[in-house]
Amino acid sequence: MNEATIDTAITQISARLDHTNELLHRMLAEVAKTPSTHAIFVDAGYVYAAAGLLVAGTEDRRSFDLDAEGLIDAFIDKARSIFADSRLLRVYWYDGARRRIPTPEQQSIAELPDVKVRLGNLNANNQQKGVDSLIRTDLESLARHRAISDAALVGGDEDLVSAVEAAQGYGARVHLWGIDASEGANQAEALRWEVDSTRTFDLDFCRPYLTRRSVTTYENEGAPPPSREEVRFVGARIAATWLAERGSDALAELLPGHPYLPGPVDQDLLIEAEALLQRSLRGHAVLRRALRDGFWQHLQSQL
Question: Three-state SS across the chain?
Fold first, then answer.
């Protein structure tokens, strides 16, 4: 190969390198102009339990009201201050519902701007099923498609570790947000280890968005208590509604525990019965047994 050929080859290589560098600079300039994007992923079950315990001293949703709209706005404002050069994609609100049919409260949350409600199921014991897998699917999908650069995850379950790992594998940064625990911890240690940063919200942050409900009183407390048959009939009536809403799968989960009811189911039964009777059954052990008998009797009659 003569000197002229070598010079020509060097010139061509140099031109290709210049062209490649120009393309790279253009790409970097485009990337620099593209705003970062973040999303907020809220495990509502964690929020209700942790905030309820911190502010109202109970995890029972029936004992307090949560201003979900106000709390979501507070989360958005906090994210805006932390991710100052980033825009919000949306807030994902994960909760459970019977047969994934949204409650009126969940419907109102779904109507909020920039909020998407995703529902898992509730089993017979009022336990959420499928919520963690929904969070993982959304986190992983958004990270894989480069739709987000940062994710604020409000939750505490160790099962969310795989969701964090999946998102990080595609280059997204995951920030764990939590609510102060009055005692111990309400977030899995493994989850705290896995994320890129952690932040907790204290009592002052949560208090404006949660109000404890007053204890229900009834006008006819001085009247004679209802009969056992009347209470048993109410138990059967509630069982009919329970079965219609939850279906045979929930019944199959409940049957092995007969004659005992899981705590959440028993509590729901008592509250509904008191509302129908307009009478407190607290302190009436015989009537409460009649209520459970009526509930079980109807369920077993459907087998």
Answer: CCHHHHHHHHHHHHHHHHHHHHHHHHHHHHHHHCCEEEEEEEEHHHHHHHHHHHHHCCCCHHHEEECHHHHHHHHHHHHHHHCCCEEEEEEEEEEEEHHHCCCHHHHHHHCCCCEEEEEEEECCCCCEECHHHHHHHHHHHHHHCCCCCEEEEECCCHHHHHHHHHHHHCCCEEEEEEECCCCCCCCCHHHHHHCCEEEEECHHHHHHHEEECCCCCCCCCCCCCCCHHHHHHHHHHHHHHHHHHHHHHHHHHHHHHCCCCCHHHHHHHHHHHHHHHCCCCCCCHHHHHHHHHHHHHHHHHCC
Q: How confident is the model at residue 31 (pLDDT cuts 50, 70, 90)?
A: very low
- How far, in Å, CA of 235 to CA of 262, rounded? 15
Contact 273, 251 (CB under 8 A): no
Q: Are 235 and 269 in contact (CB under 8 A)?
A: yes
**Residues ≥6 apart with Cβ < 8 Å to 67:** 208, 209, 210, 211
Is 0.90 surpassed by the pTM of this model?
no
Mind listing the pLDDT tens digit for each residue in 154-207? 999 999 999 999 999 999 999 999 999 977 889 999 999 999 999 999 999 999
